[in-house]
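Anyone up for a design puzzle?
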């Protein structure tokens, strides 16, 4: 199929892009890598009257070490995040996650901003932004704001982006030095969207657990943090019994959909298995043995 006709604006600055979106009065769409948008246009699930191409805006792509955080431009391709030495050094869990995003051809074109704005419930980046307490930088025709991912992802394919908003950058605060991580995903085939996925970090201070973070996706309308299990594990030493309790809390907290790929019950079971593995890896990478 072919898309319905649209006007095409090549923006050469953020200001031009957000002005074009504002002028379209809710009928404009940004195109970044086009990996999710173009199929939706071709199937005529979307019929914007204006497409605003942001690919030629200077300074919108790149990974920068800002000291206490790293800043990723929205137009950064998935493959750049995957192969960035800065990401590999400070966020090995993010590096690992990126290897699970689609296929190399899609990672070559798809962008970080596109993935977050598209907000697929089974996409890795929304979950990683929640896990890593990222801040999302957004510019509109009226100014700039930063948003917590918890307030950004409102539902499946739904965010709090307004019609004339452009996601410009994502800031990831660095993790404490003694942080271990785990990432576990199951998909039917390599490169498919996940049936379920869990990522975890465990940070130690003076060999005591300071903080546990658990991100999950594929088991709800949006990616989410397992806050009950995080609260249970904070300050504790990981043991088999504690892991059982955490897994039970995680399974109780999710309401996965049944679809043609997997039943709700299977996904609920799976997320518990993946959480146990991710937490164990995080604990061991943080330098501890299970009691
Ligand atoms: C076969 C296939 C398999 C895939 N598997 C996975 C997978 O396993 N995991 C995964 O995470 N993803 C997967 N994807 C999606 C892929 O990662 C896309 O690249 C990503 O979802 C969208 O990025 P994009 O730059 O191509 O965005 P586009 O397709 O250009 O845009 C997507 C949406 O975001 C909006 N948008 C884009 N950039 C911005 C911005 N800066 N500010 C505001 N709005 C913006 C657009 O208007 C549009 O609504 C898959 C895609 C395909 C085709």
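Challenge accepted. My sequence:
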């Amino acid at each position: 199929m072919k898309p319905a006709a649209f006007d095409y604006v090549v923006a050469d600055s953020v200001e031009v892009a957000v002005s074009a979106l504002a002028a379209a009065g809710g009928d404009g769409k940004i195109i970044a890598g086009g990996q999710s948008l173009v199929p939706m246009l071709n199937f005529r699930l979307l019929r914007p009257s204006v497409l605003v191409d942001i690919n030629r805006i200077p300074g919108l792509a790149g990974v920068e070490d800002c000291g206490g955080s790293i800043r990723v431009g929205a137009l950064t391709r998935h493959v750049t995040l995957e192969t960035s030495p800065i990401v590999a050094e400070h966020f090995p869990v993010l590096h690992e996650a990126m290897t699970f995003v689609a296929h190399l051809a899609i990672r070559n074109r798809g962008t970080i901003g596109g993935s977050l704005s598209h907000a697929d419930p089974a996409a890795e980046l929304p979950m990683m932004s929640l896990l890593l307490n990222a801040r999302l930088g957004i510019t509109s025709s009226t100014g700039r704001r930063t948003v917590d991912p918890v307030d950004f992802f409102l539902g499946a394919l739904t965010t709090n982006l307004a019609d004339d908003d452009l996601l410009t950058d994502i800031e990831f605060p660095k993790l404490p030095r003694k942080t271990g991580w785990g990432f576990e995903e199951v998909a039917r085939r390599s490169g498919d969207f996940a049936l379920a996925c869990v990522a975890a970090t465990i940070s130690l201070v003076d060999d005591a657990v300071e903080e546990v973070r658990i991100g999950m996706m594929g088991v709800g309308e949006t990616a989410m943090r397992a806050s009950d299990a995080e609260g249970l594990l904070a300050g504790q030493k990981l043991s088999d019994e504690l892991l059982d309790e955490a897994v039970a809390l995680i399974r109780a907290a999710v309401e996965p959909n049944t679809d043609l790929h997997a039943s709700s019950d299977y996904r609920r079971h799976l997320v518990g298995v993946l959480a146990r593995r991710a937490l164990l890896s995080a604990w061991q990478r943080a330098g501890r043995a299970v009691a």
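A detail worth pointing out: The pocket of flavin-adenine dinucleotide is lined by residues 29-37, 74, 101-102, 106, 110-111, 113-115, 117-118, 123-125, 161, 166-167, 193 (CB under 6 Å).
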